[in-house]
Input
Amino acid sequence: MLTAEEKTSVTALFGKVKVDEVGGEALGRLLVVYPWTQRFFEHFGDLSTADAVMGNPQVKAHGKKVLESFSDGLKHLDDLKGAFAKLSELHCDKLHVDPENFRLLGNVLVVVLARRFGGEFTPELQASFQKVVTGVANALAHRYH
Amino acid sequence: MVHFTAEEKAAITGLWAKVNVEEAGGEALGRLLVVYPWTQRFFDSFGNLSSASAIMGNPKVKAHGKKVLTSFGEAIKNLDNLKGAFAKLSELHCDKLHVDPENFRLLGNVIVIILATHFGREFTPDVQAAWQKLVSGVATALAHKYH
Output
């Protein structure tokens, strides 16, 4: 899926990412930009405004958890389906999350990386990351039935 | 029909005023062609699209990108009637250009990413939300006359 150069550049950029900050920002932005996604997090408390969402400690904690899982996935770029098999079952059988939301979160993550890295987020890096988030979204949808 | 609040309109127009349409247009179209390479099929006449740097430096890509984003700018003046504003372009893209409407969504997402790279901190969650709504509205408007 990714060439050797793409894997190197993706890993290098991601190595500079502060997982807890970026995770919180990505999940927060998902909830703000696509407000229907808040339905999965009703127990998180105050999600009433963008500021409330972005400052919400449960959003930050859960965002960090999600991005740590994503980071683990990056170590298994050759077998994303295997790496995310259990999480796929969880999201289908227990959490009942529509797989379209994985694509939305992937796109938000790309926007957050673009925002943080600016010019360093070249077209090539964008292309590589887009492939990765698409691969992760597909892997997470793979066990759905 | 998509409806924008006063705050959303302000977020959109406020950011747009600072956008260099020529540069951003070229960058948006270029990145579309790099990140989603199948979209190159619509631009076979553009010459060298063989690498990311060839695409980003290609003068036809830059010129056409500017044209596309200028048109987008017109939409921003017609936020209350995107379907009307894009009716003719919708017919053109369906009847003459035969572009799958999914590509409008892809280009919209690329525009959001470029704004994020350029504006950094200023590209707050609220601003991102307003722009995501705009690009979705434009994509829908461009698909509206398809048959």
Residues 125-143 of chain B form the longest helix (19 residues). Chain B touches chain A at residues 30-31, 34-36, 52, 55-56, 109, 112-114, 116-121, 123-126, 128-129, 132 (CB under 8 Å). The helical segments of chain B are 6-16, 21-35, 52-57, 59-76, 82-85, 87-96, 102-119, 125-143. The two ends of chain B are 19 Å apart (CA to CA).
